[in-house]
Amino acid sequence: MSNRETITQKLQAMLPADDVCRDESCQAGVLFSAQVPLAKLRDAMKECDTAGYYLESITALDFEDTFELVYHLNCYEPRARVAVRVLCGHDQSPATVSDIFPSALWQEREVHDFFGIEFVGSPDMRPLLMPEDADCYPLRKTFGKVYAYHKRDEIYG
Amino acid sequence: MAEQFQEPVVEQIYTLNLGPQHPSTHGVLRVLLDLDGEFIIKADPVIGYGHRGHEKMAENRTYKQFMPNSSRMDYLSGLLYNHGFVLAVERFAGVEVPERAKYIRVICAELNRISSHLLWFGTYIMDLGGFTPFLYCFDDRENILDILDRVTGSRLTYSYCRFGGVNRDLDGEFISMTRAFIERLRSRWTDYHNLVTKNVIFIHRTRDVGVITPELARQYGVVGPNLRACGIPFDVRKSEPYEVYDRFDFVIPTGTKGDALDRYNVRLEEMEQSCRIIEQALDQLPEGPHINEVAPFKVKPPRGEIYFAFESARGLTAYYLVSDGSPYPYRCHIRVPSFGNLQVLTEVFRGTLVADAISILGSIDVVIPEIDR
User: Domain containing A20: what range?
Assistant: First the structure.
């Protein structure tokens, strides 16, 4: 069985049917999208690691009511990208995945630089791209010139 | 050499600061090296000197206004980034593109890929101490810059693509210049191979140096020629064909060991494959308009998101755009290939000699402003 089928089945078994979405045409670039609760993030990422996926990017989105972390994973097969999405409140801290995917270490540092999200258990949270003495989180919608600050439902609802 | 490395027992660890102004660190990379004699115990890259906040800038600009930024991240393959951004927005907003424009974009993008690889080739050999090939490469690269300058109007930071086509049409002179260049580049391969590939000093500096195993590559998300050098034929142009890449006949060159020599061979072969793509695209170039005249002046993608991946000169690159339906992106994230490619060095550098570190760093082909964004 190919990697993409393995991971799809694993994540489907782990989550309620409403939280997963499969798009065979990959119109938005992602084959399989899974809304994972914060507590199950590490389990989902471990499944991806076992299935032979690599971590492509970690990024965060800032909404009025919550942060959303988006993990894009891919394997060396055509059209197999998986998105693991986690809602994380403005006062919550997700667990690090840098021990599962070493490449997450720098990407989590980058997210911390720009959004101020602390990753619990990360061995290194020094600023990566921002200066050492920076006292702001520039990609938050409360910083600088901003055109819109929405609730999550206004975009994805 | 790497076999002789043992865990240091003495307490005499020497910290060396490599860069950020060192000529072989290509841009503004600084690496803190912990040394035991000549061996590297720990490498800690320090980046961020070129951070300009492109992602924040994107939120304050319309999609069209952000276009010039796209080619200023990776300054060596600006047209590929520009192309990728335009493709992402076109797919997101559903803009139609005429056939001729698709071919023009592919031709220019592949020319840019060759120029990026040529510059890497020249500077890499210069890092290793050979100055002559650098001059040959820049001579060839100058031809590409002249060709692209003619049609795009700029030599490095191209902003040539438009939503729905390209800025200017190709003319007969462009086509004959490109064909002449490909012929000339092919006649140069013999010179390059005689100068560099068969050079015994070069082989000793690169063979079995900086080996990246497939498993290490997966853990660190290494992509592009560095990944293909360890034997995995993964190329976005084949796995998720965009534009008209599925109409061309080309192969993905791969290596076997994943050392610096394999990475060198893969890149050289990739230039030849790009030449093949350009030739086929020139042969198939259809007549017609070069831009969709009825494309909307103000691009407003629907609410939602898109993750668009494409192959830049350094590997898989992606634009992640989130739209709230307004002309301004709600969020624009750029996944850059050099990020993973540089991070893997923390692992690869362990136990190598300082002199090899320069060779490995060069062979990885990182562009720092692309990481810093």
Answer: 3-143
CA angle in degrees (0–180, nearest 5) for B245-B249-B252 = 85
Across the range B168-186, mean pLDDT stands at: 91
> Is B339 in the A-facing interface, judged by CB distances under 8 Å?
yes
Q: Is residue A155 part of a domain?
A: no
What's the half-sphere exposure (Cβ side, CA atoms, 13 Å) at B297?
A: 0
CA distance A57 to chain B (A): 6
Inside any domain, residue A153? no
Whether the full predicted model's pTM is greater than 0.80, yes or no, is: yes
How many helices (H) and strands (E) in chain A? Answer: 4, 5
For chain A, the domain total comes to 1
For residue A83, report the phi and psi dihedrals to the nearest 5 degrees.
-115, 125
Please report, for the domain that includes residue A23, its CATH number: 3.30.460.80
Nearest-by-Cβ selection for A29 from B308, B326, B373? B308
Residue A126 lies in a domain: yes
- B51-335+354-372: CATH topology is Cytochrome-c3 Hydrogenase; chain B (1.10.645)
pLDDT digits (tens, 9 = 90+) for B277-309: 999 999 999 988 888 888 777 888 888 899 999
E strands of chain B, at which residues? 14-18, 30-36, 39-46, 161-162, 165-166, 304-312, 315-323, 329-335
Segments making up each domain of chain B, as ranges: 51-335+354-372
In this prediction, residue B147 carries a pLDDT of 92
Q: Find the closest chain B residue to A131 by CA distance.
A: B48
**What's the pLDDT tens digit per position in B230-245?**
999 999 988 888 888 9
Give domain status of residue A78, yes or no.
yes
Residue pLDDT, tens place only, B257-274: 889 999 999 999 999 999
Residues 91-150 (A) with a CB less than 8 A from some CB of B: 101-103, 105-107, 114, 127-131, 138-139, 144-148, 150
| ipTM for this prediction | 0.91
